[in-house]
Design a protein that fits this description.
The protein is α+β, with helices and mostly antiparallel strands. Helix 2 crosses helix 3. The chain folds into two domains: about 120 residues, D-amino Acid Aminotransferase, Chain A, domain 1 (2-Layer Sandwich); about 160 residues, D-amino Acid Aminotransferase, Chain A, domain 2 (Alpha-Beta Barrel), CATH 3.20.10.10. The relative contact order is 0.16. Strand 1 and strand 2 form a beta hairpin. It is built from eight helices and 17 strands. Bound molecules: ligand PPE. Ligand PPE binds next to helix 6.
Amino acid sequence: MPIQTTPKIWMNGELVAWADAQIHVLTHTLHYGTGVFEGIRAYETADGPAVFRLTEHIQRLHNSAKIVGMEIPYSVEELVAATKATVASTGLPSCYIRPIAYYGYGEMGLNTLPCSVDVAIACWPWGAYLGDDAVNKGVRMKISSWTRHDHNTMPPASKTTGNYVNSSLAKVEALKAGYDEAIMLAPNGLVAECTGENLFAVRNGIILTPPTSAGALAGITQDTVTAIASDLGFDVRVDNLARSDLYIAEEIFVCGTAAEVSSVNSVDERKVPCPGPKTKAIADVYARTVRGQEAKYAHWCELAV
Ligand code: PPE
């Protein structure tokens, strides 16, 4: 579905008209995949649009940059304010937000040190990422033939644009084979995550999610879900999962800012009970949390205006 346009995009300190948010074809990051980005959502709450865990997302953007040695010329506080201003400028009650820091026009070649760093923040309405009603219907998963990159290849902890070639290869392979999404294994064969979501599997009543050392992104939704699950009284742990754990799991769900909480109904044609009761309970609290309807987690909703 084509992107739905909104009035303004923030670029290097100012809000410019959507159509004017252009870059040169010789922009460094376009050639080498050297940018870092975030995916954030704003939701409608009783007090107006609120950006969910905004400060933590911007902090992760700074961490992504630090990992790849990029210096973002705006502080976390400045980018938090810029994101709020961008969301407010759209007048939308809810939207998806995409901040990106990239090496700009002016230098070519692999040495990023002389390059300028540009920053843009765009937002637009973006609906269900893994299909409508993915909590109840569940998604069909395939273990990818593509391996998640190793820590010494492309650091998976950094949301670097170039890292997503790996995710795109896996996503398109899965779609072409008739699946909805792919599960990526780390070079040592253990489960890492999906192309754009973290994964949780229930085994013997315990909810398990792979660690960052297995190549998973330190997901903010993963962290939210862990808090919700534990407050619901579930036993939730960070631990490694083997492919076979997924085949015999009692429940599997994936989560991310875009995908929210989505059930998995099968992995490589092995049926997974879906929707599972733990998944349903967590997805329900998550949906209320992001809309500011759970007092306990209200501090995660950062009002845009
Ligand atoms: N793993 C990966 C690889 C990933 O890209 C995401 C976010 C997550 C885990 C979940 O992280 P978090 O959003 O902090 O819970 N994926 C983004 C979508 C990627 C895309 O552009 O498509 C997102 O959810 O915004």
